[in-house]
Sequence to fold (624 residues):
Amino acid sequence: MTWARLAFKLQPSSIGFAAFVCLGLAAVALWLAADMRSVLEACGTPDEPNACQVMYAFQDTHMNAVFLTQTGIGLAMYGIPLVLGVPILTREIEHKTAMIAWPLAGSRLKWLAWRVLPVLVVGLAVIGVMAFAADQLAQAYFPHNEIAFDRHGSRGISLVTRSTLMLAAAVLLGAVIGKLLPGLLIGIALAVGISTAMDAALPHWASSTELTGAETEIYGPGPLRTGAQYRLADGRLISAQEGEILVQELYEENGGEEPDPALMPQQVMYGIAADRYGEVLIRESAAIVAVTVLASALAVAVVQRRRPE
Amino acid sequence: MLLTQLRLLWRMHRWEGTFFIGGALLLSGAMAIVAWQLDASRDTMVACYEQPTDALSAECRSAIEWGNTLAGAIGILGAVATVAPFAAGIFLGAPLVSREIEHRTAPLAWSLSPSRRSWLAWRAVPLLVLLLVALLVLGQASAYLLETAEESELGFRQFGMFGPILAARGLAVFGIGLLVGLALGRVLPALLVTALATVAIVGGMSIGRDLLMREEAVWMPMGDQAEVVHMVFDSGFQSDATGEVITWEEAYNRFPDTFDEMTGEGEPPGMTSVWKVVPPEAFGLYVAREIGVLVLAFVIAGAATLALVHRRRPE
Fold:
């Protein structure tokens, strides 16, 4: 309680905003998930809804609300660490209180730990609740499938690790820049960079293979699809674009009718299968934790050496 | 005197000014370049797709790849252009006064200035003019890009992504940020509260627009309008003789033989398939209304700011 009170007293607006946004989004996500699951209670009865059968069970009824909530969570997972992390040091440097606080504290490291740890604990608690709710929402939206890579990065553990990295990066940014507004503005660009880098790195945490069975579908949750090709009747592989042009040509040659299936090229999907999600998550989390530790160490180094003005 | 004031203002807001006003102009430039490239590569792409697959030249492969890259860029640039007015309004409006109050420079500035209102006008108007010009340019660049990409007239599907509405959004959020900043007197809380107010405004305007569209939707024949109408609120069949509209279910029950058993397609005799939609011609009216509401929000926030700045205690 004392920690929570201390953290709140140090940054009332940031923590109040973080709690309001994260818990608000979590409440909406959990309510939507419960609402979708309640629809499925009628499955197996004479009045069985369509949602019991189809993959996109809630596309017609809940899609807009789910999309808006997931967009909000996707923005909050970077925005909240930014408003929590950047002001920790910028406020003290900008208001020149660091000049007094640092000599009085004895150790700058200890001073930094007292400033960052309560915010980190409170921040992770509210972000954790939001991550759990986002996970429940994603699972409820695809009730008949293993979601695996669907919404990866904006739910569950992957959301928490990315937000923690963003928080460490925001603290570092605040220490380097020393001014709130420039820190926040550069932080926005940094958040875009981190998000883009994480998404770009995702297919590289495990090797891509040819997908089989239901995973060869172009859409739907489950595997991480990384590319597509077409296989000709003689076994040769051609690019997706060439394949699509060839299919179009075959239809044109056949006067718009369906061509002989033996002549049609078969689509081949590549990616990481859904059952390898755990492996990818562990590798990615380990890498993010390592980068977070590095960013934190850099923040400590900057605070140790920085002139307090 | 004027130049000194402007130089001082720029020095105070150079970070957010460069980021948002410079960013909006850079974004406009990027949009114009993508639109120009899209237009220039279109004929080549069409010619490439007409070639037999086996003879697809290296130039064609590269042109198709470039076309895909440009298509991907349209989505990203469009999304940034939609968000930019709100972000610019928040980051330029909220800290404008709150920073001076938080850093305690406001009491000195207020005592030196002939009146607090003129001080506020000197702080806000030049920045606001720059913001408006940048967002108007962005709105035009966005319109050019979307028109080039869609190859058709823009309408409800691109609502809020182009034109002067971007500047109106920036204007309203700037005004609200200014008021919140003056009331709270601290930068971070002002930014956060303005961000929440912006979310409420966006949500409220969106819900209001949807309700209005439902209210004003009319029955129109399906067909040529398919690509320009945005939301279909209902569908059915309209009697050519009486104008009466019946639902698809009623039509299936009353005229079962006119529908294909496999595809469900068909049309009862003497009836036309209709959609309940807002006519595309009403798009301009909706944009004008929304701009009106946003300008009104700015005027109200501006008036409240002028009233408050006169009374506020300088700490």
Q: What stands out?
A: The longest strand of chain A covers residues 224-231. The mean pLDDT of chain A is 90. The first helix of chain A runs from residue 2 to 10.
